[in-house]
Amino acid sequence: MLKFLKGVVGGSGTGVKDLPYNIGEPYSSAWGSWVHYRGTSKDDGAPVSIFSLSGSNANDGHLVAGRNGVKRLRTVRHPNILSFLHSTEVETLDGSSAKVTIYMVTEPVMPLSEKIKELGLEGSQRDEYYAWGLHRIAKAVSFLNNDCKLVHGNVSMASVVVTQTLDWKLHAFDVLSEFDGNNEAASGPMLQYEWLIGSQYKPMELSKSDWAAIRNSPPWAIDSWGLGCLIYELFSGMKLSRTEELRNTASIPKSLLQDYQRLLSSTPSRRLNSSKLLENSEYFQNKLVETIHFMEILNLKDSVEKDTFFRKLPNLADQLPREIVVKKLLPLLASALEFGSATAPALTALLKMGSWLSTEEYGLKVLPTIVKLFASNDRAIRVGLLQHIDQYGESLSSQTVDEQVYPHVANGFSDTSAFLRELTLKSMLVLAPKLSQRTISGSLLKFLSKLQVDEEPAIRTNTTILLGNIASYLSEGTRKRVLINAFTVRALRDTFSPARGAGIMALCATSSYYDATEIATRILPNIVVLTIDLDSDVRSKAFEAVEQFLHLVKQYHDKATTGDTGAATGISSIPGNASLLGWAMSSLTLKGKPSEQNTLSSSSTSAPIASSISNTSSVTDDANFTPVRVSSRSDLTDLADHPPSPTSTDGWGELENGIHGEHDGDKDGWDDIEPLEEAKPSAALANIQAAQKRPVSLPKTQVSNSRPKSTLKTGKDDESDLWGAPADPVPKSTSKPSTAKASRVVDEDDPWGAIAAPVPKSSSKSMSLKSGGSADDDLWASIAAPPPTTGPKPLSGRGRGTKPAAPKLGAQRINRTSSGM
């Protein structure tokens, strides 16, 4: 029998050198003759606890009992019983005598007495923690007595240890034996190693070795007495030295006193069963016990109960012991979220609990769960992650964001919910600095290009604001290709006035990235037009921007005059960019806080932009407006047929090509205006008015195919409004979706574009315009282009019949080919 026990103990190792664990410093206390060490695994450095028991020879009584304890702990498994990992028995020579040592490795734990001193809990928080711990030990004792018919025999504070998650667990199984009360033939001691139990912990029948009375008693009689001893030591704060001290009940809570007295009944048969203690005691009915119990049986709760619980949890966590919340509740909550048993409101509680952790612990306990949640298909979880991204976004590494987070977040750009699209957009303010240039250029900018023509005006506005904020994270080439096109061709021509204002502010905030040529030829012409905008806030911003950019151009002039060779390469930004950038960031982050928006330091902050950002569901009459490339008199429906630019890597590539093509046409366009100025030298406004009064013939042209005819809408307010109003969409009888989208004639396009931009050829309609056929649509048309002298030429249009081309305007060069050719 002895050889068998030695084989059981030594079966998993042959010596200390072969022990796959490192033995560290010992704790100051342990049960019986065991020594409790800290330890780590040699494989991965994971913490463990190592217990050692030494004897002079293999037949030493303590070693024999220790082997029994190892065997029992190895075979009995319960959540509230210490988890066994490894064991070995080693024989060494200590001088001339031999020494035998048993090593037992378990999960990392700490003696209960030392953990209580370390926590230092007081008042109600201490009582709640003690109640939770006693609840755990009572469940372990009930399992042994009622389910396994085993008697522990030595329940006390020394036999309880605490895990890293502050769970109490029962160990010290050296005395553990089967209860043989039903065996009438049994006559010897039922507890073979009862001599290891201290006399102060023995009930009366055990002190007298009355085995007959013990066998006639319930299986829980001895261990119920031990529970009473544990309760006394716990609340008195002193180790029990004599049995008579158990009568001192001054430190016992009143809600537990009656059960305490029943546990220590002098009659074994009347002692309270540990299972009844769990069911009836008022002491265990507190917030901490109920909260942890709910989390442990979360899978058994319905969705309504879960939702109610998790909404209350953030406030409840403030009332519970902080150490227990962080070390016990937080891991349970993270696990529940990770495996899908927790609802979206649990995310708020997780982030609040995580804020109490150190940076290192936060990265180990909270961030891995958050990263996994980004892959969730639950829309509520995704919304919660994006709403609170400012709380954890800075803690994410660049590699994690680029490889694991962004691919899932990017799905929100195309979501059918406008609210989720805007949350995704705003999250980029935190995530974009951590993205690689490849991801920004190859993915993010494409999504932002689509969002700049989103049906929601607030999303279009926020997209412009975001571009202004992340401009510093773009490469130089990307900035040259994207920023001016996005801010001028789209933002400044948006029908939503806060979007135009955001475009002006974004240009000012990124002014350091533009050279003098870009400012003079591409930025100032577009901003000057907005000085007569219908919206007063846009006008005021436009005047400020004009002053700022003129100052920058003057800097260039001064440097060029003094012969500074670096003047042509770039211009330093003036003070004021910082406040503008700060305004843009505040407008993004202060969602739904008008009172805070009013306190911003920037003098340019306006209520319309703040409202457009805070109200994601606001849809104006022009919410479906789709900005297009620079064009004036050609039918806009043909824009949808243009092939993508071969050099385009994002949504603004096509815009860039059109802008670059304007430079050669600028000279020709202004040449058309010069003869008029020489023939009648007067103010520019007089020329415009004269052009408006010039009679223009506009014959109606019938379309030869099945398409309905195109009707140009004459604006009634052309003389007073240079921008006009968007024309009504032309109804389409065919099933071509792209032409229906592009058929909105937008008079808000920059009037200067009629002069500078080349006119795309039409491939989807035939039009015959004479002598400035779009003068009603654009006041500058009669000045910029003389009437064509030749008729339209038919073009083949993808098998849809012959279509005449749009007339060429003035001396402008045609830099684009029709998509139908």
UniProtKB/TrEMBL annotation:
This is Inactive serine/threonine-protein kinase scy1. Residues 592-673, 689-821 are annotated as: Disordered. HEAT repeats lie at residues 366-404. Residues 657-670 have a biased composition (Basic and acidic residues). It comes from Sesamum alatum. Residues 601-618, 731-743, 761-774 have a biased composition (Low complexity). PANTHER family: N-TERMINAL KINASE-LIKE PROTEIN (PTHR12984:SF3), SCY1-RELATED S/T PROTEIN KINASE-LIKE (PTHR12984). Residues 2-284 form the Protein kinase domain. The keyword Transcription regulation does not apply.
